[in-house]
Amino acid sequence: MALSAPDSPETARDLLDFDELTAVERWQIKFVRRTFASAPVDRVIRVLQRRISANWIDLSTRNLLSVHGVDRLPVFGRETSTILVSNHRSFFDLFVVSSVIVKRGLEQRLMFPVRSQFFYDSPLGLAVNGAMSFFAMYPPLFRDRDKTALNRASVDELVRLLRAGGALVGLHPEGTRNKSNDPYTLLPARPGVGRIIRATRGRAVVIPVFINGLGNGLVGQVAGNYLKTGGPVTVVFGHPVEFDGALEGPEADQRISERALDAVRALGEEERIIRGQLPLSPPRV
Fold first, then answer.
1. pLDDT category of residue 8 using cuts at 50, 70 and 90
2. 177 CB contacts (<8 Å, ≥6 apart)?
3. Domain boundary assignment for the chain
4. pLDDT band at 5 (very low <50, low <70, confident <90, very high)
5. pLDDT value for 119
6. CB 128 within 8 A of CB 114
7. Number of Cα atoms under 13 Å in the Cβ half of residue 17
8. Mean pLDDT of 164-175
9. What CATH architecture applies to the domain 15-277?
């Protein structure tokens, strides 16, 4: 899904101001937002994301997981913000990637923009969001073309939280899930991620990562891990992306997105070599 972001804080609109939201959507957005606004609740959510979410993801992938490039990661300050830019082949890409760095001491609040369908238009969606990730799936994005303004407001919310500090946001420069048979041929970069990076005004470190090997069935993926019958899952982190000279001028958003995706693509070539050297059953990391 394409994203757009404000050019300045003055253009931001509050998502809850829109009449197009249903009563259920409005209540659930308000509920999750309050977990950010209350400092005690926010602290509890961060602890739960670290102690429970990251651990169950680790237990569900550790027998298949191989992680590389951790030494390239910066020190993650609790009150700074980070943007993870990743390729996108599985619904679970960012959950696994974030769990790796959370297990290595990250204390930032996790956020992954998610489609509103089910997760925000159904009470069950809120329950799943809370149980799986302690409300990391936020803010919602809307597929209907007549709700473009709501998407802009959702991304305004995302930028606001990044600027405030203490957030880790996972984004996909490709804009949508790549369903091709070749994991190394990425979709073209969309300008939305570039708009978000530019709107943060350098207040967020951008970390590229390439992940390969995850499926889209949760039960099958977890079973393959415990039975050790699944294929290897590899994660390769890169150095923070520099955007000097790309943040200003015409087409800046597209250039930023392309630079971020180029960094991910380079990690894909690195992962291709690593994968060719892995045993059929990757060692536990």
1. very low
2. 88, 89, 90, 91
3. 15-277
4. very low
5. 93
6. no
7. 10
8. 95
9. 3-Layer(aba) Sandwich (3.40)
Query: For residue 280, what pLDDT is reported?
Result: 57
209: exposed, middle or buried (Cβ count in 10 Å: 0-12, 13-18, 19+)? buried
The tens digit of pLDDT for each residue in 92-111 reads 999 999 999 998 888 999 99
Q: What is the per-residue pLDDT across 242-269, written as a single tens digit (0 to 9) for each?
A: 988 777 777 899 999 999 999 999 999 9
Work out whether strand 140-141 and strand 65-68 pair parallel, antiparallel, or are unpaired. Answer: unpaired
Q: At what angle do helices 252-277 and 191-199 cross, to 10 degrees?
A: 110
Residue 259 pLDDT: 95
